[in-house]
Amino acid sequence: MCPSKTTRENTRGGRPYNAGPYLPRSGGLDAHRRAAARCQGCPLHENATRTVFGKGPESARIVLVGEQPGDQEDRRGEPFVGPAGRLLGKALEEAGIDRDEAYVTNAVKHFKFTVAPGGKRRIHKAPDLREISACRPWLLAELRLTRPDVVVALGATAGKALMGSSFRVTKDRGALLRMPGEEEGAYVVATLHPSAILRASDKDREAAYAGLVSDLSVAAKALAECEPSP
Length: 230
Prior knowledge:
Blueprint: H1 5-9, E1 11-12, E2 15-16, H2 29-36, E3 62-66, H3 71-76, H4 83-95, E4 103-106, E5 113-115, E6 122-124, H5 129-146, E7 150-154, H6 156-163, H7 169-172, E8 177-178, E9 187-191, H8 194-199, H9 202-226
């Protein structure tokens, strides 16, 4: 039988794009973080410095999902430690969300990049749907282990990883949604990725940042309403 089009598109040299076989059969976030360090579920591991797994308490009630590690995250091994992370921290504070109580991760765990002329600077390159799909087992495991009340999708890649390939942040940002197939699952709030705000022109950046804070405030309100009564 000939392989389906989907199978052909998600394989490389006969190997599927799939992180699933690398997941541990049991254990918490620490066990999954150790296992993810050895993940070869797609070609991105070949050039990245390391796997950048999520960080934060396993008891976190809110999970923030970005796209992929950037240059500094790849070097340091932690998510959102570069300029976009600092902007996110500021916006979270203004929205009333304690970053230390949040679990922060990315839809894709390896840095995808091209090398600038001269061979020194590494330039971010967006992951494609095969890579997002391959890495999704790690994201689903993180959500299963943290069991958050609210998940924030920071940008298009995170939105597609959580809600499906047809999801558009520009259409549904700031709305309180449900994870697909989850009758009693987490709320999802989509917004711009902080790096998009950093790339905005000077005249547009203030409004873009205000929109990020507004969307995060929707997540903060949902989190407060999910708080168990004393």
